[in-house]
């Protein structure tokens, strides 16, 4: 159905970024009018009563694993899109570590098309940096960039681009079209193949091979120097240590084009959760001690870390429910990202809702080069938005998730802030906390 044929939507009485209450009339995929509270007549519009809700530009996730093609038993583009819409996202970047890997233009276009067919969120493929994520030869970066998928973010995520020469070439290459390399920063020699948790007192006690924070920090330090040398842009995926924050702070002060993301889990969960050997908490990079968590929160609040990205990493039970050392790395995160940020950063008074819009929408959209997303909610802007109940609290139930996977580290935890509605180009994908059947839109 063409977008022009959809019914207008009137969002009544939302608090824009938590700052001022207004009505928003959404028509033909854009914000047609912004008016004083209760000033706009509904006419034939579908009315969303947003009294008490905060309106944010639709959330943008720089780091999502959708698992299709190859691991549809863990997630598909459709089930991951549902989780994204339920979490308030209107765009997600789909990581390239699928099977086959997204390392060609055709593979990227297939992911794009699967996203369009699902129709719940803009699925923007990330391209691999190297063929098959092998870290040796560059993938078809230019062809992916020029394809219908317009790939701008490249990453071997799951693996580090460990070879400095390869990283340098990738940075030089993507510079030509304003691309960015998102690095999974982890020196493979320092981290070691068997490592599965933070290296520290606890890993010693548990008898688990740990990996040290410095394995991340040396790669970030190297990559900011390569970004300076090439004049290109580097993005640091899932920052997990205070040392990385120090490097980023220095690099930004030099004017080096580096951006960075932190995951919700690294903002709240700590390494001591591993004491019960529950593989739900096994993730790469690992959960760290309190000092790191505090440094990450401070860096997000002061802008040293630019964005929050979920690293939603669904895994099927038969990959996750193993002895700790054998289980897969990763945890789901799309449906809980906003509540975790609200709980850790807003409820604690460290960030405002305008800051949340910056770290979960505006800045990630700018980093990824997605012009239709992250815009301020003013007349003429694309009608991509999220409505949040800022005070609602809820105990997370992994079985209430719409993701296909259940590796949910938030199960049983009470979080504040609930996504009530998501609107993609003027069409609700989530209403009253329930997914909207695409056929009914
Ligand atoms: N984060 C994880 O623990 N796992 C990710 C890979 C990654 O993000 O490095 C995955 O693909 O499962
Ligand atoms: Zn990674
Ligand atoms: Zn990842």
From TrEMBL:
Zn(2+) 2 binds at residues 157, 184, 238. Signal peptide: none annotated. It comes from the Bacteria. Its cofactor is Zn(2+). Binds 2 Zn(2+) ions per subunit. Pathway: Pyrimidine metabolism; UMP biosynthesis via de novo pathway; (S)-dihydroorotate from bicarbonate: step 3/3. It catalyses: (S)-dihydroorotate + H2O = N-carbamoyl-L-aspartate + H(+). Zn(2+) 1 binds at residues 63, 65, 157, 311. Keywords: Hydrolase, Metal-binding, Pyrimidine biosynthesis, Zinc. GO terms for molecular function: dihydroorotase activity. Its EC number is 3.5.2.3. The active site is at 311. Residues 54-241 form the Dihydroorotase catalytic domain. It is an enzyme of class 3 (hydrolase). Substrate binds at residues 65-67, 97, 284, 315, 329-330. HAMAP family: PyrC_classI_B. Belongs to the metallo-dependent hydrolases superfamily. DHOase family. Class I DHOase subfamily. Catalyzes the reversible cyclization of carbamoyl aspartate to dihydroorotate. This is Dihydroorotase. The lineage of its organism: Bacteria, Bacillati, Actinomycetota, Actinomycetes, Propionibacteriales. The gene is pyrC.
């Amino acid at each position: 159905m063409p977008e022009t044929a959809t019914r207008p939507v009137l969002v009544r009485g939302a608090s824009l970024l938590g700052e001022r209450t207004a009505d928003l009339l959404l028509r033909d995929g854009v914000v047609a009018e912004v008016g004083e509270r209760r000033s706009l007549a509904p006419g034939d519009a579908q009315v969303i009563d947003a009294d008490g809700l905060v309106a944010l530009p639709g959330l943008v996730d720089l780091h999502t694993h959708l698992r299709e093609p190859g691991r549809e038993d863990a997630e598909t583009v459709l089930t991951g899109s549902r989780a994204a819409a339920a979490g308030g996202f209107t765009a997600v970047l789909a990581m390239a570590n699928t099977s086959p890997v997204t390392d060609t233009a055709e593979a990227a276009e297939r992911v794009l098309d699967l996203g369009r067919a699902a129709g719940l969120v803009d699925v923007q493929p990330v391209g691999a940096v190297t063929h098959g994520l092998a870290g040796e030869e560059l993938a078809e970066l230019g062809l992916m960039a020029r394809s219908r998928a317009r790939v701008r973010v490249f990453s071997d995520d799951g693996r580090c681009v460990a070879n400095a020469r390869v990283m340098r070439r990738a940075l030089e290459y993507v510079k030509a079209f304003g691309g960015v390399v998102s690095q999974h920063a982890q020196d493979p020699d320092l981290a070691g193949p068997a490592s599965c948790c933070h290296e520290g007192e606890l890993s010693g006690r548990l008898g688990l091979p740990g990996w040290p924070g410095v394995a991340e920090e040396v790669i970030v330090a190297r990559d900011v120097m390569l970004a300076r040398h090439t004049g290109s842009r580097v993005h640091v995926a899932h920052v997990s240590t205070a040392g990385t924050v120090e490097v980023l702070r220095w690099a930004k002060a030099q004017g080096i084009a580096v951006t960075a993301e932190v995951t919700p889990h690294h903002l709240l969960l700590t390494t001591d959760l591993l004491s019960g050997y529950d593989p739900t908490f096994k993730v790469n990079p690992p959960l760290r001690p309190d000092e790191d968590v505090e440094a990450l929160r401070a860096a997000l609040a002061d802008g040293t870390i630019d964005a929050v990205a979920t690293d939603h990493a669904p895994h099927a039970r038969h990959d996750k429910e193993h002895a700790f050392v054998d289980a897969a790395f990763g945890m789901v995160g799309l449906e809980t990202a906003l509540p975790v940020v609200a709980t850790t950063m807003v409820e604690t008074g460290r960030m405002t809702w305008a800051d949340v819009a910056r770290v979960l929408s505006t800045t990630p959209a700018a980093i990824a080069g997605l012009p239709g997303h992250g815009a301020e909610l003013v007349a003429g802007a694309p009608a991509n938005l999220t409505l949040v109940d800022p005070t609602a609290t809820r105990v997370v139930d992994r079985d209430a998730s719409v993701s296909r996977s259940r590796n949910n580290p938030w199960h049983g935890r009470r979080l504040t802030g609930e996504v009530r509605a998501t609107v993609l180009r003027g069409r609700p994908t989530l209403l009253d906390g329930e997914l909207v059947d695409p056929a009914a839109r």
